[in-house]
Design brief:
By secondary structure, the protein is mainly beta. The chain has 9 helices and 32 strands. Among the domains are: 24-178, no CATH class; 478-563, no CATH class.
Length: 593
């Protein structure tokens, strides 16, 4: 019986409360006179905004609670010189119980068709500075919820450049701030368009939560958890803000960003994708041509702590090129941070597709010239790329053992090198390229010089130190008739005829200014002749050895040894007359073009 009576009593109470709420919703609009509260409402709004407020019409309504609708509202600047805000309608929701006691307590506000004007003057002061840092007459009321619908925000910045920033607008704004206040966790939702100077507008969508620190704490303690999606943003629209810190001019193009973020400004995790479309970088001191890929895209997963920026994964791609890796920046706020970067290309890339991306301006002049003018094509791949060192070490790899901060290794195939239009090309080059420690290494290289196949092992020692480099190399080549004829023309032996197989071994070492090149040429299986001088048939033992110095622009032959046994046939001229070593002190070749 007691239980049944309790249930009946609870039902009666709920019925009474429901009847009261419905009755209030129905009768309260008729019982309250808007004009009786007009002055008090205006006073509350003006104290909240520290600005003069006016409206054309007001009406009391019940929107899930008591509220006032104001039409044709205008909010002036503090000095009354211009409109700070104009809106078709503002709905202000009130707290119910204070209203029954004839007191106005504002809770929520929603603006429809608003036009808000934000200005930064030449002295750097904002027209909302008083709202951002309220004084005694500042913000007296905190709205639980604020909304903007079908609204526009105009941004005028007179403090940038000589003539200020061209006006920027955010249109079609849909903004909801719910419980965003000091010491509380609230939510933020924003969607808007930013009209472009030309072309389609940018679209911005933000969604997440924010917990503001309690009063007295820095906003750097704010906690954010949300997503951002920005499409087709004009890169150059806000260039005046950061262009002075970038060494090239406005590249134009559009920017897409899709990212998530969780944490505080100084300690957070983020994951997302950034894509740049149709930008063109002109930076002649670094790139010898305009860098204008159709797109540049980066996918990332990072975490920031007090001492470490950890980009756990980064995937960078553009026309014909993709590279993946990771980056850690230790002690990033210190004077000499440490960088640890690792990278590799998942697939191959063609040199012809990426040659405009080569930063020639930061490469030593001789190397830069060689890459730009000698390398014509090739298929490359980065298997290993490691950079590990302090900023001070990376900036001065030539000092001490700082060269150990960098390791690059990867295969190449189908490469072509050209030394002029009349010289045979080095083609179909295949092997491994390695930059390890202080040496640049060519490992297991094969290819052809014109039609003559070769094998090569070589290095450039002290490549990135302040010491002079050495160029040790060993090359085995099987000279064919076209390449021998080209070489013969250089030395003036235009009538030399050559056929058959032979083997030439070249070994080199020394510095660029005094490079030593020695050769051993086994000619037994070769046949050659020079009118009026020599005719050597295939199968006759024959050997040529030479030692030379190659200063820039000439060849100095220290010695030449040519060995050929006497001919058994008197009809073969001169076959046995050059069995002794021949020494040539200096020889200058004719140019081959």
């Amino acid at each position: 019986m007691m239980k049944r009576s309790y249930i009946k009593l609870s039902g009666i109470l709920l019925l009474v409360v429901g009847t009261l709420v419905v009755s209030l919703a129905f009768f309260l609009p008729y019982l309250l006179d808007i004009n009786a509260y007009r002055d008090e409402i205006l006073t509350s709004l003006q104290k909240s905004l520290n600005r003069k407020v006016s409206f054309t019409r007001g009406e009391f309504k019940w929107h899930f609670g008591p509220s006032f609708d104001f039409d044709g509202i205008t909010v002036k600047e503090p000095d009354g010189s211009a409109d700070f805000l104009k809106a078709d309608r503002i709905t202000v929701r009130l707290a119910l119980w204070p209203l029954l006691d004839k007191r106005i307590v504002l809770r929520d506000v929603a603006l429809e068709g608003a036009d808000i004007r934000l200005v930064r003057n030449k002295d750097g002061k904002l027209n909302i500075d008083d709202l951002l840092a309220p004084g005694k007459e500042g913000m007296q009321i905190q709205f639980r919820k604020m909304q903007l619908k079908r609204s526009t925000v105009q941004w005028y910045d007179m403090a940038v450049g000589k003539e200020g920033l061209p006006p920027v607008a955010a249109t079609n704004i849909a903004l909801t701030l719910d419980h965003v206040a000091r010491g509380r966790k609230g939510s933020v939702k924003l969607a808007c368009d930013i009209p472009a100077l030309s072309g389609p507008p940018a679209r911005v969508v933000l969604n997440g939560t924010v917990r503001l620190p309690v009063k007295g704490q820095s906003l750097l303690e704010m906690e954010v958890n949300g997503d951002a999606d920005i499409k087709q943003a004009e890169i150059g629209r806000f260039w005046p803000y950061f262009g002075s810190h970038i060494p090239f001019a406005n590249p134009g193009g559009r920017l897409d960003v899709a990212t998530s973020l969780k944490g505080k400004p100084r300690e957070f995790a983020a994951k997302g994708k950034i894509r740049v479309n149709n930008a063109a970088v002109t930076w002649p001191t670094i790139f010898h041509a305009t860098v204008a890929p159709r797109f540049l895209q980066a996918e990332y997963d990072l975490k920031l702590t007090g001492k470490l920026l950890d980009i756990k994964t980064i995937d960078l791609s553009t026309d014909g090129f993709r590279i993946k890796g990771s980056v850690q920046l230790y002690d990033y706020a210190g004077k000499d941070p440490r960088i640890v970067a690792k990278a590799a290309t998942p697939g191959t890339f063609r040199y012809e597709d990426v040659r405009t991306y080569v930063p020639y301006g930061i490469i030593p002049a001789d190397t830069s010239d060689y890459i730009e003018n000698k390398i014509k094509s090739g298929v490359f791949k980065l298997d290993t790329g490691v950079l590990d060192g302090r900023i001070s070490q990376i900036a001065h790899m030539e000092r001490g053992d700082n060269y150990n901060t960098l390791l690059i290794r990867g295969p190449v195939e189908k490469a072509v090198l050209s030394y002029g239009p009349k010289a045979p090309t080095f083609n179909n080059i295949k092997g491994t390229i390695e930059l390890k420690g202080k040496n640049f290494n060519l490992i297991g290289m094969t290819g052809s010089f014109g039609t003559s196949p070769f094998k090569l092992q070589g290095s450039i020692t002290e490549y990135n130190t302040d010491k002079q480099s050495d160029y040790p190399v060993r090359m085995e080549i099987t000279p064919r008739s076209p390449e021998v004829a080209w070489l013969a023309r250089i030395v003036g032996a235009n009538k030399l005829e050559f056929s058959g197989n032979s083997n030439l071994v070249l070994t080199g070492s020394g510095r660029f200014s005094t490079y030593r090149l020695d050769g051993e040429w086994e000619l037994k299986q070769a046949a050659y002749s020079f009118p009026g001088a020599i005719r050597k048939p295939a199968g006759t033992a024959n050997h040529l050895a030479f030692s030379s110095i190659l200063p820039p622009g000439e060849i100095k032959l220290n010695s030449v040894t040519y060995t050929l046994p006497p001919s058994p046939s008197p009809q073969t001229p001169c076959c046995g007359t050059a069995t002794s070593p021949i020494s040539v002190s200096k020889f200058k070749p004719t140019r081959s073009g």
